């Protein structure tokens, strides 16, 4: 598997080419303003995959979404580099320096007694950094984005305030404050004043976010998961009403409530998500009778696939692409007519078409007859190994 730095450099170079003369017209048109919605979208897609993993889903889609988010960071760094402001290397160096300086208990000789002291030290170090940059320590609340979701922002603000001692001594105090705010909300509702209701409802939500921090259950996450449960249960109701041929809008509240409770019972009957250790394939080693012939073929094909040759022991040939190492070692001939085909996932049907044309132009004898379509095709390498290049299902 290639080192992270190697793959990051490759991604930076891809971004540079996309923005360069003769690159991608769409990428060349973008600026900081036009990229804002994509950055936000990619961040939320990462959250979606994190939730699926929490429910016992696969990790690989999360890897892909993290890559999409990283691409946005590289894109922004490229825009800055074109203006001579900073580069991706500067981004990496800045965060490395920051994390190192804020962990003196790891990278220095400072001693800490626990996580609470780490957070207190972190707040002090940030204040010192701000003072060096601006000449003043600023507020301990600085750094929480105003555009962040409100529940998340409320929780982060109370967390930051707690780092200098502005906090309830225990959970009972937080819970009591919530009861107080609920009583005030009831009074506002009774009065009928719209402004008063908005004010008191905001205080209740803020108190809930603070309570969530105390019980170490982020309010934003809890609400997002509750929303997912609501969608799942409501769609269960819709499916049952459809099976019963109830006209749209024709069900009574009591009828829907029965299905709602049934949906909750189904949820409780499901086993908790299991997270067994998952092993990923890092390197695929294949024995071939003629490594030299294999290398001559794969040096070209690897470049078409966007892979890179890597250093390997003498007498072998190695390539890296998409997080997978492929190594050919001396060995026996592959079984003739083997039904096994190793699948390489194409990013799109268009990519399938482009690679197929390259094979037709340069290696037509390697194409497997009757195994080509718009969705994918198969080819055999000099060792007789069969490979399939196909786009994922739509």
From TrEMBL:
Residues covered by the NTP pyrophosphohydrolase MazG-like domain: 30-107, 178-219
Protein name as catalogued: NTP pyrophosphohydrolase MazG-like domain-containing protein
């Amino acid at each position: 598997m290639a080192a992270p730095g190697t793959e990051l450099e490759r991604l930076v170079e891809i971004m540079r080419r996309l923005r360069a003369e003769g690159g991608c017209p769409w990428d060349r048109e973008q600026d900081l303003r036009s990229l804002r919605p994509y950055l936000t979208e990619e961040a939320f897609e990462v959250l979606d995959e994190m939730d699926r993993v929490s429910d016992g889903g696969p990790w690989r889609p999360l890897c892909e979404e993290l890559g999409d988010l990283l691409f946005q960071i590289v894109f922004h760094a490229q825009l800055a580099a074109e203006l001579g402001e900073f580069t991706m290397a500067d981004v990496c160096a800045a965060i490395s320096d920051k994390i190192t300086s804020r962990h003196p208990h790891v990278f220095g000789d400072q001693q800490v007694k626990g996580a609470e002291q780490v957070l207190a030290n972190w707040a002090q170090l940030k204040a010192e950094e701000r003072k060096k940059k601006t000449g003043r320590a600023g507020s301990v609340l600085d750094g929480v984005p105003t555009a962040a979701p409100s529940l998340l922002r409320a929780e982060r603000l109370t967390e930051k305030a707690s780092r200098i001692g502005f906090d309830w001594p225990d959970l009972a105090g937080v819970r009591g404050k919530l009861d107080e705010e609920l009583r005030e909300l009831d009074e506002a509702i009774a009065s009928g004043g719209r402004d008063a209701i908005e004010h008191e409802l905001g205080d209740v939500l803020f108190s809930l976010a603070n309570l969530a921090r105390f019980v170490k259950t982020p309010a934003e996450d809890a609400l997002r998961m509750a929303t997912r449960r609501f969608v799942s249960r409501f769609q269960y109701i819709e499916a049952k009403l459809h099976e019963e041929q109830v006209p749209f809008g024709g069900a009574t509240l009591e009828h829907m409530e029965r299905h709602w409770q049934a949906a909750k019972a189904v949820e409780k009957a499901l086993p908790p998500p299991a997270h067994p250790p998952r092993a990923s394939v890092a390197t695929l080693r294949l024995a071939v009778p003629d490594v030299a012939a294999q290398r001559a073929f794969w040096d070209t094909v690897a470049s078409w696939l966007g892979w890179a040759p890597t250093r390997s022991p003498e007498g072998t040939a190695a390539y890296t692409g998409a997080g997978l190492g492929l190594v050919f070692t001396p060995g026996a001939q592959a079984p003739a007519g083997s039904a096994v085909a190793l699948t390489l996932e194409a990013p799109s049907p268009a990519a399938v078409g482009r690679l197929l044309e390259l094979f037709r132009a340069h290696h037509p004898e390697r194409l497997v007859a009757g195994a080509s379509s718009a969705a994918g095709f198969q080819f055999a390498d000099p060792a007789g190994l069969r490979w399939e290049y196909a786009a994922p299902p739509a």
